[in-house]
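Field reference: sequence -> structure
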Amino acid sequence: MRPADGSGATALKPAESGKNRWSMDYFICNVCCARNRLPQHAFEREAPSCETCGSSVRVRSLLHALSNELLGVSLALPDFPRVRGLCGLGVSDGAAYSERLREKLDYHNTFYDREPRLDLLNPPAGDLGKYDFLVASEIFEHVPPPVEHAFDCALKLLKPNGVLVLSVPYSLDARTREHFPSINQFGLAQVGGRTVLVNRSPEGRLDVTDDVVFHVGCAGPAPEFREFSESGLRAALGAAGFQEFRIYSDDYLPFGIVHAEAWSLPIAARRGAFGLNVDAARDIVEHWRNAHLELKRLGSSWWFRVGRKLKICK
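Structure field:
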């Protein structure tokens, strides 16, 4: 059985100088609960580092942030309580964790280019104020300017105490850099074996540029419209009306969250103070009550007591 904190690993202690940095040499993936070896160095942000599901440190740290924001504790996804009272929305979330979130919470995933569709710049009126949480990983750098409108819409989708959990590439520079501030009507085209961006400015001028950075996501290559700065993100989220802003910068070794950089880290932005609605609180209490009854039933089992005596189970 996993420890009560959901980590699946005992505490990690600093190792002696010249050896691996930690005395434990494994971590538990908080997406699939597979056991993996810890490396001798920090993980690359996007490199797959779970041998079972292929999760990266970005994905694991994003879910670490989501668990803390929703439940107040970091749990692996398979250890989440089943809480249908928590309503959430994914914005092009990865299949590896979106399917598991759907099993545990009242959550559904959406896409810009296919069903179920969501245009973050024009969300349906019926969805406003509906969600306890939004997950948007590597999305806002691809939204056409002004990006402040996307943050405004994200806030409107949330309940008064809802939270936006996001990740974007960002720097520690003084300000966010917009690559195409005059973007208006645009599209991508193939010219001479290269992908170019074609834009018609608000004044009607046609511009073509091949100096475009693309990120490959679930919908294929997407142009990067900006490189955020940390201060720019804080300012934009604050201007939209988010009241709390938290960067999840700390490593969390039990889940293999070892950051190589001090930037481009997961962020939680809250519309209001943390709080569970009545339905969610009831679901959580019921989940733990059932778990307690199951443990009590197992405790009366002769085989379970023998297993504990032999230290086969805890």
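Note: The longest strand covers residues 158-167.
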